[in-house]
Structure formats: structure tokens, C-alpha cells
Amino acid sequence: MKLKSIQIAGFKSFADKTIINFQKGLTGIVGPNGSGKSNVIEAVRWALGEQSAKSLRGKKMKDVIFSGSKYRHPLNRAEVSLIFDNSTHFLDSDYSEVKITRTYYRNGESIYSINDKECLLRDINNLFMDTGLGEGSLSIISQGNVDDILDDDVEKRRSIIETAAGVYRYKKQKNESKKKLEETQFNLDRISDITSEIK
Ligand code: ATP
């Protein structure tokens, strides 16, 4: 799996549609202070489903939408697409190219899609789970995050290691199964109560 390109429109400082192709050999993005380097990385995290406005350096989610400048009006919509080369089918998808898109409107409406087909955030989380790029991924370490990781308590650090080792998916599935078992047991107990009442 390789991130081939990113399309950004109306996201933070990127008012106009901007396409960045990540060609072979690209190792970094350089530019003057405030030119939008971090915004590119945040666009990646945001498209992958980041829900915390604070971790995107904003107060509310609508802060990701271009807020206007001296020469331009604010926009009403932010949209970011990530296009992945999936020719090895590393991502669990039949497509050899996977495009995920997140669109957000100032009125709070939010749309996610995979290969231009509308989906739920959960579908995107599932697609990237344990690939190294999913929810809570360690592939992207923001400025200041290193200190946070070192300062975290033992449990939190353990969950970081579990995520990196790829066992998080199984832990999540185990907990879901446990919950279903408990619900089933509850239903069984209820049936047992009812049958004994009928007898
Ligand atoms: P540095 O090298 O200092 O870390 P950088 O190149 O990483 O800077 P960013 O932090 O990505 O720059 O971009 C900051 C710029 O993005 C600021 O000029 C800020 O005004 C602009 N910006 C952030 N959010 C928005 C928004 N919603 N609308 C318009 N511009 C925005």
C-alpha cells in the first residue's frame, strides 16, 4: 500500500483544489513558516477520520474549513481525498486503487466515501485497522506527540505497543464478541425465567 496522492480543497490554508502526487524519492515537504506543511499532514489525518478538532489545532471541527483571507471569502466546504496504490491488495478491497474522501460542511454535515461510494466512518476505520494508518495510528506523529507518548501511563503505553504490533484489531473483536455473549446470556436467562413461570 502506498499513498499516491492527496487532493485538498477548502481545507485550512488550501482554498483552491490542490493535488500533491507523492512520487518515488519524495522524503519531505519544505517551505517557509506558516506555508501549510503541517496542514498537509493534518489533511491526511483528517481524511482518515480524525475526530478531535483539538488535535488538528482547532476548537471546533468547522475550523478545518478555509476561513477566508484578505482577498478571499471563507468557504463552506472542506474536502480531502487520499488515493492509495492497492495493487498488492494490502487493503482489504478489490480495487487496485483505493480513494477515500471526507467532506465537511459548515452546517456540520459530514460525508465519507470509499472509491466515490458513500460510506460510514466505521467502514474507513475498518479498512485501515492494523494497517499502520488507521484510528490512533502511529505512522503520523505530530509535533509534541513524542513527549506525550513518553509521559503516558503504563496502560496507555501498552495500548500504543499493541496498536503497533497489530493486536488491537483482535482485542476489539474479542471485546465485541464478549459483549454479544453477555447479551445472549441475558436473553437466555430471561427465557428461562419466562418458561419457569409458564410451567
Ligand atoms: P511551520 O513551519 O511554522 O510549522 P507550516 O508550514 O507547518 O508552518 P501550517 O501550520 O501548516 O504551516 O499552516 C499554518 C497556516 O495555515 C497559517 O497561516 C494559518 O492562518 C493557516 N490556516 C489554518 N487554518 C486555516 C483556515 N481554517 N483557513 C485559512 N487558513 C488557515
TrEMBL record:
Subcellular localization, as worded in the UniProt entry: Cytoplasm
Positions that bind ATP: 32-39
Segments traversing the membrane: none
Family designation: Belongs to the SMC family.
Domain topic, free-text comment: Contains large globular domains required for ATP hydrolysis at each terminus and a third globular domain forming a flexible hinge near the middle of the molecule. These domains are separated by coiled-coil structures.
Binding partners and assembly: Homodimer.
Function of the protein: Required for chromosome condensation and partitioning.
Official protein name in the record: Chromosome partition protein Smc
Species assigned in the record: Fructilactobacillus lindneri DSM 20690 = JCM 11027
